[in-house]
Amino acid sequence: MRVVMVGTGYVGLVSGTCLSEVGHNVACVDLNEEKIKLLKDGTSPIYEPGLENLIRRNMEHDRLTFTTRISEVLGNADVAFIAVGTPEGEDGSADVRYVEAVAESIGKLVERNLMVVVKSTVPVGTCDLVEETIQKQLAQRQSNVKVTVASNPEFLKEGDAIGDFMKPDRIIVGLNDPEGQAVFRDLYGPFVLDDQGKLLFMDRRSSELTKYGANSMLATRISFMNELSLLCERLGADIDKVRQGIGTDPRIGKKFLYAGPGYGGSCFPKDVAALLKTGEKNAVELEVLNAVTRANVAQKNRAADKIIAHFKDLNGKRIAVWGLAFKPGTDDVREAPAKTIIQKLLDQGAYVVAHDPQGQGNFAREFGDHERLVYADSSYEALRGADAMVLVTEWSEYRRPNWDKAADMMAGKVVFDLRNQYQSQELHDRGYHYECMGRPDSK
Ligand code: NAD
């Protein structure tokens, strides 16, 4: 099939590349000239394991192209995806202006029957809006081209995005007219060869809401476990044991039960906020979700407060921070807990030396300069002269530090393990002060 993918961010670029990998002909469009220039040279503008190789391979086979001009590629397309950003607006609702802008361009340019697929995470009713916007343009041009609008939210996880897209648990497609199903069977058939039942068709509104429901459910699990971890600290229980005990119940499952410094990323905070706004607009009080957000803000602060409480006075203290991306495997730092934590440490007068294998550039750009914030070239370099180390993101390279080497480099032997990666005994044996989240030895 001939596919146009509008938006080459974390979702659009992975989706477009994986669609080309199974043989579709994909043209990716982005307004950002710098990104398109890099992509045309075979360089991925984002860090996602395996992505760059896949991009190059499919470019070589002429199945994947890049452009800044939708007008150059829409003419031939059977399917056009909208995968642009839907950032949090000032009032918490999702800002769909970029989605609308693409819909308007499609309406102005489309010359043959087209399936328009909204892949961006959008509030319920946005596909209706996209349809109206396109129909308005078609009416103005007196065009009788048939454009169908479908919802197809994306569930990939940054860091595992290729695997998630190539081997999905399910693909949700929202269509108001079942006639469009054939297009999706064709498009996604190669991804569900093992089980065609993974292709779930439903109406558009249910599909739009499914995405918010899924992310909000995952955020709820995290906030709930973080609150339980606090209770563990007060009661002398171990959140890791409690997690195992809970997660082995098949009704609950093992995933998304880890205590930590609060959830971040480009999706959970904004999608939870957007669903709360949808509730408010429809006079439905989403009390659970309100509490999830409050608990998450509290958790991010609590993580920093542990460090502040230990030192009492952070003025002039040097703190090494390992991990800036909101999770391992990505360079995405949007809403990363590291931001809240580092800001609080700086506010208290600390010097921060930060390290992240992939996220330093994005973090520096988004966080901005601060005279007491510097970045280190390696994780151990960050430890030089540090009074404490804080593990914020559990990159694999941080999982098994050489504690003797670390002790030689650090000024103080203090470790705050916000991801429960290390064994307290091992650190105690070497004379470290060690704190983690919701396990014995935590404060
Ligand atoms: P992103 O910010 O990384 O990328 C969006 C891209 O769209 C940018 O490159 C931007 O330049 C481009 N763009 C904006 N307006 C455009 C236009 N008119 N024409 C062409 N390009 C345009 O965003 P993302 O993280 O890929 O997310 C995209 C959508 O997918 C969002 O709605 C997000 O909520 C959703 N989503 C994201 C993830 C994730 O893990 N990042 C997962 C599932 C769903």
Please give a structural write-up.
The protein is α/β, with parallel strands linked by helices and 443 residues long. The protein folds into two domains: 2-201, Rossmann fold, CATH 3.40.50.720; 203-443, Rossmann fold (3-Layer(aba) Sandwich), CATH 3.40.50.720. Helix content is 43%, strand content 14%. The protein has helices at 10-21, 33-40, 51-60, 97-109, 126-140, 161-166, 181-188, 204-235, 239-247, 268-281, 287-311, 337-347, 360-367, 379-383, 403-409, 424-429; strands spanning 2-6, 25-29, 64-67, 79-82, 114-118, 147-151, 171-174, 199-202, 318-322, 351-355, 373-375, 388-391, 414-417, 433-435. The strands form three sheets. Strands 3-2-1-4-5-6 form a six-stranded parallel β-sheet, with helices on both faces. The longest helix is centred in the middle third of the chain and has 32 residues, at 204-235. The chain is globular and about 75 Å long. The mean pLDDT is 97. Bound molecules: nicotinamide-adenine-dinucleotide (NAD). Nicotinamide-adenine-dinucleotide binds next to α1 and α4. This is UDP-glucose 6-dehydrogenase. Residues 320-424 form the UDP-glucose/GDP-mannose dehydrogenase C-terminal domain. It comes from Pseudobacteriovorax antillogorgiicola. One of its GO terms (biological process) is polysaccharide biosynthetic process. NAD(+) binds at residues 30, 35, 86, 121, 158, 270, 334.
